[in-house]
Design a protein that fits this description.
heteropentamer; A alpha/beta; B mainly alpha; C alpha+beta; D mainly alpha; E alpha/beta; E: Rossmann fold; 2 domains; four-stranded antiparallel β-sheet; about 25% strand; binds adenosine-5'-triphosphate; binds magnesium ion
Chain lengths: ~350, ~325, ~575, ~325, ~350
């Protein structure tokens, strides 16, 4: 099976007054039809920029983009505006985080849907309207006829997001990029929307990129998860592996800082210390090293590459710790050890060996 | 390396980044403004203008020019029409034989004085009332806002003309408190301007009032007075500065317009607007009489506008020119 | 009246020095009938009603419409000729009965259409005494008619002293001598049909002005206040009975041309236009006189006199030496430059001005040779001397600031500033307040009780050919009134007052001239005000206009004599 | 909606009432001409003057005078009588109105076309040479006093004195009904001069609005739909960016209908602004009051119109 | 000394919605909080959960007297808070403090961290000398994990988590007994959120604080709270011990909430049926009659439309306001924690 979307070594940087922001710095992944990729990471890690770049929406005077984004073998980064416009909203569609600001406040929901049809299909207004109505029904908006003439602000948050999804799906895209589609919504509504996306995806064999900062959301919905840190993918794994055998201290941190409803009340959460790094002057070496409890001095010099994890297919990690040590650490953490306790492993002489290995 | 690593990691991010960031919001602001060469040039022009206005007497004596109110009938021809630029009078003379250069200098002082003082008063009054109205709401707000509505319903220039004319009488107005001349112009402009400041500040305060730090202060037991002056006011400083910087050039123009219409600065005191008005009768034969004060006015207003734009950009990172 | 009102003449002595721009006082021989003339003016008439009007510009509008008993013809400002009257007035030996015959067959314009009778003249004068009409000069010149007081009080329906023995005769019985005969050229002598006017006169203020009927060559077509007055031919006018040629078919007064420069240019470069109430500004005078269009501008001698008055009743100007000092140091030349330099008039040396009878008797252009009026550019040393006499050792005035109230627009504003500067030169601190013209008069200068000490923008023009009309209202202490006072210096010298009373009763013109010249000397020696200009009010017209200047009325064009070249074709 | 408008209209009445009160108070302080003395003409007979005073009600207390004034306005649409002009104030104003409307509306057309055109071009070609030149020019125009600009324009282009006599008839306004060609000729320069500042302000504002709008999320959505850049700018961008411009235009026109004093003065246009200015310089209180009320009327009515239109344009706004 | 620190009874808050050009008249009212009674026990952490707009913040703000209730009473240590004013109110304010949701808007950007934390002392005139204040502020900064040397820095120089620490320090300054924390972590990234939660719990243990903890994230509430109150459209629908509530939810709304929580675990390990609530939250200006949840409740019957269920104890120990409470089997089918 060939991949629907292949992103290779994508780099996006913005020239700003304060310096060059490397928002995305060498991201690669691929995605097949009918699959969902979850992209997770802290705020500012480059999730949205990745999504936008795929659609060519981050182009601009002060933006530098390199790498390749191949959609069905066709490099979108190299495509001209005309070609891009033909793809946007037709083959690839996007749903944004805040539906209130992402819908035009001065046009009715109906108009905005109809417009989306008319850009890509040579059909009459009436046909476009029918299609819009159909989609509103499909995404579960009751009394669709009436909602067509409503303005976005007249709908509730959930309804708006449904309308947004209807607009994205109206031309049967093969790839849907959903950028934090539920962050602005209540849990109950969030559940509704995620459910909806899942159903529609199954129906249409569509590929989905689900961007979220919540591993719960990403985990629940995605077949595969990519963890993003400071513009880089630090770990890529299947749904199963990311929760059961994560390999990167960053992933551990994300997992362990979430209070778990299913557990007994734990005494302490395990947060990731510090805060996300500056993207103008990112830390040298492993970008996570300043916040990594297991970092060794050499990690500030050596830049890890994304490498396959043992025998697991499709599991990749960019970490300088030897795999054995990582497995060991995760086992301890999972058993309830604090990072400090788990760090006992770090005293393992094997580690020093790895240090030597890794040194150039 | 146990707890220390943790702590270092916690604060490490901060120190590395604070090296990039400036210390205070003001430093940030200065840094941005420093990058705006046009605004800096305009600022330099204004500084120069202020200096010139302050030092007009020495400048005049240096150039050997008569005072701004000295009439020299000899500088007029037999028909009483003014003569143009010459070594003796670099900008020519006006219809009364007064040196236009000296009067342009004197006009600078008047313009700056009127615009700065009246803007200051308007901003002070507008800010205070705007804060009170928005903060207390209810009848306080209703009273001031309706008052503002009434003032805003007035044709501005007419109101200005009216007040200025009313106060230009021999007795002045407000029981003689406001005397004809500069006092009246300042009062008029301030009276008209405070409403605009009021509206802006009221709007800003309405949103600031809802900020959580105001709630926080209140929940700590802060008095209203403290909240208004310690919590809200400091946050209004930036918009006030921007707005004032935009009002000043407008008020320079308003002063000139009032003087042009004859109800502003009273003769013989020089004002650019009044000079242009006097030049109207001879503007096709004595171009210099209209040209120099007009150009001075244009450049000054332009400079203030440029500085205002610069300040706005520097204080509002979102703006983008 | 003051410089906006009244009538005038132009004496032969009137500064003939200027060669350019001498007034045209005769119709060109090739004048043609027909055409429309536009008169550009800045302001409007004060009143359109002949019973109320008192502005020079109003007279310019009214005379072409009406036949007053007597009227000045353009060439002769000295003596009024009969117009509605049929011959000169007969004055009894005691001077107390004046009989005038009027012409037979003069008819009112539509809708009245009937012939004019002496009763119409009587009514015209009577209504001027009513509060609905409120005339500005009737109390000065007609108050000595018998029965006026009773009429004014409402005790009588008519003025008993005006008799109309038959339809064509009107007799005035007077209580004492006075300038009545000369005043019979004023517009209130234009007949008003009582039966028609009563309806309008019963309103307060009377609306007869907008509805007036006329006896002259023109009648009122339309009036838009501040914008436009249009006159058209009066179909009932009989050229045989009226000496005026009346060439034009239509006269449009286009008002609101505040910018004298623009208006002047329009006239000079346009067609069929003349200036109304404004003098062309200095720059225009200069370019016109220096260019090849000299003939389009006229300087009209005898257009009045301009003064800077001082309040002689309060310090510091109650001190004659201070007043003399001010006159001595005053640079009248600088003042004159604000209006256009020497072409626009001569520097005044006394109160009567060229063209008013008595002017020559009062020393003509040289005046009385008083030291403090001898240097037109001001003599600061002499001023200092007088100031020292007044007790200011330094030769500079050192008292408290003085209040000067002037006009806020046009050349008067400039003049006020020059005046201010002149006072300041002598050490005065001057608070100059510049206010609207009407305000200056009604709130400040014309109100003796106001604190105003100096009025730099006043002036006077005679009402008709008699020196009393220049000196009487303005310097007779008995004429000081609490409001609308025109004795601006508030000069109240018993000797002068007495001399005036005597001179007023004189009937022989030469005697009158000599008596009033003496009074002129007495006044001038008191230095009550600074006479700085004998005006030669300039007027301009388009190339195709043959304008004829009425020298008695501030030199304005007499439209009944003015014609357009090429209008006939 | 009707409800809302009715309530707003009532408020307008109240507002105008306050405006007239304030005018009365402010202008009562004016050292204006004494109408009785004006009425009396040059008559100095104190009895006559006193009689006129009584008759005009000038001896009544200020409140009574005010009451009478308001009564006449409300009952007879009578704005009083000008003793300086000897005419009904209402007639004077109505007479001047066509000139003012010609000036204001014509200028508005000019500045909207120029302002919007330049604004859009500048926003779309942001930071280009065109943009920089346009914005520099705009700032220059914003800084120039309109009367000075008018004089300079006259010096340059007037048919009589101009260096390049392009425009016939400047300075000699003629009503439209009299001679449309001359009307147009006489107004073309005033239109451009009056609209200069406004066009500059509008261009600057529209540019800023459009740039800001173009960074909105919904513009990104429009692009994500695959719309052409032109459609994104002109349909989605301009639609939002222009809304505040419409509001502003309404208010500015409202103010100008009350008289463009400076422009009318410089170009000698007999409009309401000129009338009121003359009245102020002559101390003619009744005209001042009348014109102020008229001006205020246009302002408040256009404010209402703008609010209603705005609510039509921006569906998020609800009538309160 | 009783067990109860604060008791709230029949607390109601309605916000009038007004319109009018000049004079405002009321056209509708938002029923933000309607007849809520509960008590806060000394030393406990009471959780308050519910969807957006259900009245959590309004409750919080009434508790610390930032809002005056429309009706009902709040008593603090037996003293009626609702009636307090002037000096008494000022004294009461020292006893209870609030921590706010938005770490950006809750700190005045124009003030230094030091002066923000010192503000309580300035307002109450405590620790007169600058030196003493500064020392105390730095102690507090240390206590919440901030570098005391950053005393003179401005908020914008800090990250969200650090700012929230400043907010905590300010709340602690007057040594209050009660802290009301209104969604203190919902604006933070998960990784940072955990730092703050740890801090709050540590402080509570150390200082014996009583905390009212508001959140819409049920896992956070579970982690933090001893007891939990669930609100829906201004009503209190369920109140129980944390364990009881999560194991044996009784109100269908609680069930639905718990069911909707995304769980960070591999798909294969989660076995439950999600119950997705139909429809939208009704408008608080015109809440449904009787049981407000009936429009969306899968178990609703006729009686729910006409009779409001009282808050009564149900099987398992929870207090719930429901005519047809969930049974354990029903709950375990949909709720992962049951
Ligand atoms: N147009 C731009 N110009 C400059 N910097 C940008 C631009 N867009 C994004 N960035 C920067 O790029 C980085 C990554 O942004 P991005 O929006 O992808 O983050 P994110 O992972 O989506 O975060 P969040 O969870 O907050 O949405 C951030 O530091 C952001 O400030
Ligand atoms: N000052 C106010 N005026 C009018 N309505 C208000 C006001 N404050 C809150 N409301 C309304 O009261 C209801 C309850 O609001 P509240 O802020 O208490 O909800 P919440 O549960 O805290 O919601 P969130 O989770 O969004 O913070 C909402 O419908 C809100 O719109
Ligand atoms: Mg994002
Ligand atoms: Mg809340």
């Amino acid at each position: 099976m060939t991949a629907l979307l292949e992103v290779e070594d994508l780099r996006v940087s913005f020239r700003t007054a304060d310096g060059v922001v490397s928002a995305v710095d060498g991201v690669s992944f691929s995605l097949e039809a009918n699959r969902t990729l979850g992209i997770v990471g802290e705020s500012g890690s480059g999730k949205s920029v990745t999504g936008l770049t795929i659609m060519g929406l981050s182009r601009g005077e002060s933006t530098d983009i390199s790498g390749s984004v191949r959609f069905e073998g066709d490099d979108l980064l190299a495509a001209d505006d005309r070609r891009l416009r033909a793809v946007r909203g037709d083959d690839i569609a996007m749903v944004f985080q805040d539906p209130l600001s992402a819908l035009h406040p001065f046009f009715t929901v109906g108009d905005q849907l109809v417009e989306a049809v008319l850009v890509h299909r040579r059909v009459g207004k009436g046909e476009a309207r029918r299609r819009a109505l159909e989609l509103l029904g499909l995404v579960g908006i009751p009394a669709a006829e009436r909602r067509m003439s409503a303005y976005p602000h007249e709908l509730s948050g959930g309804m708006r997001q449904r309308a947004m999804i209807a607009m994205a799906l109206i031309n049967d895209p093969r790839l849907l990029i959903a950028d934090e589609p539920t962050t602005a919504l209540d849990v109950t509504v969030q559940a509704q929307i995620l459910e909806l996306i899942r159903e529609l995806q199954a129906e249409r064999e569509m590929a989905v990129i689900l961007i979220t900062h919540d591993l719960g959301v990403g985990g629940g919905g995605a077949d595969e998860v990519a963890g993003l840190y400071a513009g880089r993918v630090v770990e890529r794994a299947s749904n199963e592996a990311i929760f059961e055998a994560p390999q990167h201290p960053y992933t551990w941190g994300l997992l362990q800082s979430i209070p778990k409803m299913t557990d007994e009340r734990a005494d302490e959460l395990v947060p990731i210390p510090g805060r996300p790094p500056s993207l103008i002057a990112p830390p040298s070496g492993c970008r996570f090293h300043p916040r990594c409890p297991y970092a060794r001095p050499s990690h500030s010099r050596i830049d890890p590459r994304l490498e396959p994890v043992g025998a697991e297919p499709g599991h990749e990690v960019a970490c300088l710790l030897p795999e054995r040590v990582r497995r060991n650490l995760w086992a301890r953490l999972r058993a309830g050890a604090t990072p400090a306790e788990a760090r006992g492993v770090a005293e393992d002489p094997v580690l020093d060996e790895s240090e030597r290995e890794a040194a150039p | 390396m146990s707890v220390e690593t943790f702590e270092a990691a916690e604060t490490g991010g901060l120190t590395s980044e604070s090296a990039v960031q400036a210390r205070t919001p003001w430093q940030l602001f200065w840094r941005r403004l420093r990058g705006d060469r046009v605004a800096l040039a305009a600022l330099a022009f204004i500084v120069l203008l202020v200096l010139v206005a302050l030092l007009q007497a020495p400048i005049r004596s240096l150039l050997g020019l008569p005072g701004p109110n000295v009439q020299n009938p000899a500088a007029l021809d037999v028909f009483g029409t003014p003569t143009g630029p010459s070594a003796e009078h670099p900008f020519g003379v006006d219809t009364l034989g007064r040196d236009v250069f000296s009067r342009v200098l004197a006009g600078a002082a008047v313009s700056l004085q009127v615009a700065l003082i009246s803007t200051g008063i308007a901003v002070a009054v507008g800010t205070l009332l705007g804060m009170l109205a928005a903060f207390y709401g209810g009848w306080v707000d209703t009273t001031f806002s309706r008052m503002a509505d009434v003032l805003l319903a007035f044709p501005v220039l007419l109101l200005a003309l009216g007040i200025a004319a009313a106060c230009s009488g021999a007795e002045g107005c407000a029981g003689g408190l406001i005397q004809p001349g500069i006092g009246t112009v300042v009062f008029t402009i301030a009276f008209i301007n405070w409403v605009f400041v009021f509206r802006i500040i009221r709007g800003q305060t309405l949103s600031l009032r809802e900020k959580e730090y105001v709630e926080a202060s209140r929940s700590l037991g802060a008095s209203n007075r403290r909240i208004i002056f310690r919590e809200i006011l400091p946050n209004l400083v930036a918009p006030i500065i921007v707005y004032a910087s935009l009002l000043i050039p407008q008020n320079i123009l308003l002063e000139a317009a009032l003087s042009f219409l004859g109800v502003g600065v009273q003769p013989p005191q020089a004002s650019w607007g009044a000079m242009i008005a006097d030049a109207v009768t001879v503007f096709d034969t004595a171009w210099w009489f209209m040209f120099f004060p007009g150009t001075a006015l244009l450049l000054t207003v332009l400079a203030f506008n440029l500085v205002g734009d610069g300040l706005q950009d520097a204080l509002n990172p979102r703006s983008d020119r | 009246g003051d410089d906006d009102g009244g009538s005038t003449e132009a004496g032969d002595g009137g500064g003939g020095s200027a060669e350019v721009g001498a007034p045209v006082t005769e119709t060109a021989s090739d004048a043609q009938k027909g055409g429309e003339l536009t008169v550009l003016s800045a302001g409007d008439v004060d009143y359109l009603d002949p019973g109320k009007a008192y502005y020079a510009f109003s007279f310019m509008v009214l005379y072409p419409m009406h036949m007053t008993l007597y009227a000045f013809e353009p060439g002769n400002p000295e003596e009024a000729a009969p117009m509605l009257a049929d011959g000169d007035a007969e004055v009894s030996d005691d001077g107390l009965t004046v009989t005038v015959k009027i012409k037979d067959g003069v008819r009112f314009s539509p809708p009245v259409d009937r012939e004019v009778t002496s009763a119409d003249v009587k009514y015209a004068i009577e209504r001027a005494f009513t509060k609905e009409v409120t005339n500005g000069y009737v109390n000065s010149y007609f108050a000595n008619i018998k029965g006026v007081d009773a009429f004014k009080k409402g005790d009588a329906d008519e003025i008993s002293g005006i008799e109309t023995p038959d339809d064509l005769t009107i007799v005035f019985n007077l209580t004492r001598g006075g300038p009545l005969v000369g005043a019979l050229s004023m517009p209130i002598t234009a007949p008003v049909p009582k039966e028609y006017a009563r309806e309008f006169d019963s309103k307060n203020p009377s609306t007869y002005g907008e509805n007036q009927v006329t006896t002259g060559p023109y009648m009122l077509d339309s009036y838009r206040p501040g914008r436009e007055i249009v006159l058209t031919r009066n179909p009932n006018w009989d050229g045989e009975l009226d000496p005026r040629p009346a060439y034009l078919d239509r006269i449009v007064f286009s008002e609101g041309n505040d910018d004298a420069t623009v208006a002047s240019r329009q006239i000079l470069e346009g067609k069929g236009m003349v200036s109304g109430d404004f003098p062309p500004p200095p720059a225009v005078i200069k370019s016109t006189v220096q260019g090849d269009t000299k003939e389009l501008i006229q300087f009209n001698p005898g257009s009045g006199t301009r003064w800077v008055s001082m309040d002689t009743t309060r310090p510091p100007f109650d001190d004659l030496n201070v007043r003399k000092a001010v006159l001595a140091g005053f640079d009248s030349n600088a003042m004159r430059l604000t209006r256009g330099g020497e072409l626009i008039g001569d520097i005044a040396t006394h109160m009567l001005y060229p063209g008013v009878s008595g002017f020559e008797e009062a020393g003509g252009m040289e005046g009385f040779g008083l030291d403090f009026l001898s240097n037109p550019s001001g003599d600061e040393e002499l001023a200092a001397e007088y100031l020292r006499k007044a007790g200011f050792e330094s030769g500079k005035y050192e008292g408290p600031p003085i209040l000067m109230v002037g006009e806020n627009a046009g050349v008067d504003q400039a003049a006020a500033q020059v005046a201010q500067r002149q006072f300041e030169k002598l050490g005065f601190k001057v608070n100059l307040r510049q206010v609207p013209g009407d305000t200056m008069y009604t709130k400040f200068c014309n109100v003796p009780s106001s604190d105003t000490q100096v009025c730099p923008n006043v002036g006077w023009i005679r009402d008709f050919a008699d020196p009393e009309t220049v000196l009487g209202p303005t310097f007779n202490g008995n004429n000081i009134v609490p409001e609308n006072n025109v004795n601006w210096p508030e000069l109240d010298d018993p000797a002068i007052n007495k001399a005036m009373d005597e001179a007023s009763a004189l009937t022989d013109p030469d005697e009158r001239a000599r008596a009033w010249a003496d009074i002129d000397r007495m006044i001038t020696e008191q230095a009550p005000l600074i006479p700085w200009l004998w005006d030669k009010f300039p007027t301009i017209h388009s190339t195709d206009v043959q304008g004829v200047n009425a020298l008695w009325n501030q030199g304005s064009y007499d439209l009944a004599y003015t014609s357009l070249a090429g209008a006939g074709s | 909606m009707t409800h809302y408008i009715v309530r707003r209209l009532l408020w307008i009445v109240v507002l105008l009432f306050f405006v007239s009160t304030l005018t009365f108070v402010v202008f009562y302080l004016l050292p204006s001409t004494d109408p009785a003395l004006l009425r009396a003409g040059r008559s100095s007979d104190p009895e006559v003057i006193e009689a006129i005073r009584v008759q005009l009600g000038l001896n009544d207390p200020m409140l009574v005078q005010y009451w009478n004034y308001m009564k006449d306005i409300v009952l007879h649409f009578d704005f009083g009588y000008s003793y300086v002009n000897n005419a009904e104030v209402r007639d004077l104003i109505l007479d001047r109105l066509p000139a003012t409307i010609s000036l204001a509306v014509g200028a508005a057309v000019v500045w909207l076309v120029l302002g919007i055109g330049v604004g859009v071009i500048s926003a779309v070609f942001r930071r280009s040479l065109v943009d920089r030149l346009a914005m520099g020019g705009a700032l220059l125009l914003v800084s120039a006093p309109v009367y000075w600009l008018g004089l300079v324009a006259l010096l340059l282009f007037a048919n009589d004195i101009g260096a390049f006599p392009l425009f016939e008839g400047s300075g000699s306004y003629v009503p439209l009904t009299e001679d449309p060609a001359q009307w147009f000729a006489s107004l073309i320069m005033p239109w451009f001069v009056l609209s200069a500042t406004f066009a500059a302000i509008y261009a600057r504002l529209l540019r800023a609005n459009l740039i800001e709008t173009l960074s909105e999320d919904y513009i990104r959505t429009a692009r994500a739909k695959g719309l052409s850049e032109r459609r994104v700018i002109f349909k989605h961008g301009l639609r939002s960016a222009i809304t505040p411009i419409v509001t502003l235009a309404g208010l500015d026109i409202g103010v100008l209908l009350g008289g463009a004093i400076l422009t009318e003065t410089v170009f000698n246009i007999p409009g309401v602004g000129r009338l009121s200015y003359d009245a102020i310089t002559r101390g003619d209180l009744p005209i001042v009051q009348g014109t102020v009320l008229f001006g205020a009327f246009f302002i408040v009515v256009l404010t209402l119109v703008v609010d209603v239109v705005y609510a039509k344009l921006d569906p998020r706004v609800r009538y309160r | 000394m009783t067990d109860t620190l604060m008791s709230v009874s029949h607390l109601t808050k309605h916000f009038p919605l007004t319109e009018g050009v000049v004079f405002q008249r009321e056209v509708a009212r938002v029923h933000a909080v309607d007849d809520v009674s509960l008590e806060v026990r000394r030393g406990e952490t009471l959780g308050l959960v519910g969807e957006t707009g259900c009245g959590k913040s309004t409750m919080a703000r009434m508790m610390v007297r930032l809002l005056d209730p429309t009706s009902g009473t709040i008593s603090y240590e037996g003293e009626d808070v609702t009636a307090a004013s002037g000096a008494r109110l000022k004294r009461l304010r020292r006893e209870m403090q609030m921590i706010f949701q938005d770490p950006y808007s809750s700190l005045n950007p124009r003030k230094t961290i030091g002066s923000i934390i010192a503000e309580p002392f300035a307002i109450h005139g405590l620790l007169g000398s600058d030196g003493a204040r500064r020392r105390r502020v730095q102690e507090l900064m240390e206590q919440v994990g901030l570098n005391p040397e950053h005393y003179n820095r401005y908020p914008h120089e800090f990250s969200g988590g650090q700012r929230q620490r400043v907010g905590v320090a300010r709340a602690l300054a007057l040594a209050p007994k009660l802290i009301v924390a209104d969604e203190p972590v919902s604006a933070l990234d998960v990784s940072i959120q955990a730092q703050i939660l740890n801090l709050l719990r540590g402080l509570q243990r150390e200082l014996g604080l009583t905390i009212v903890f508001i959140a819409h994230d049920l896992s956070v509430v579970r982690h933090m709270c001893d007891r939990v109150a669930v609100m829906y459209l201004g009503n209190l629908v369920e109140l129980a011990d944390s364990d009881t509530l999560y194991r044996h939810p009784r109100h269908p709304y609680t069930g639905a909430l718990l069911s909707a929580v995304p769980v960070a675990a591999a798909r294969s390990t989660v076995r439950r049926e999600r119950q997705v609530l139909e429809g939208d939250l009704p408008s608080p200006t015109d809440p449904p009659p009787a049981c407000r949840f009936h429009t969306r409740c899968p178990k609703a019957q006729e009686i729910c439309r006409v009779q409001a269920p009282p808050l009564t104890p149900k099987d398992g120990g929870a207090l719930a306001a429901c005519h047809f409470p969930l049974a354990d089997e029903e709950a375990s089918a949909i709720v992962p924690t049951a």
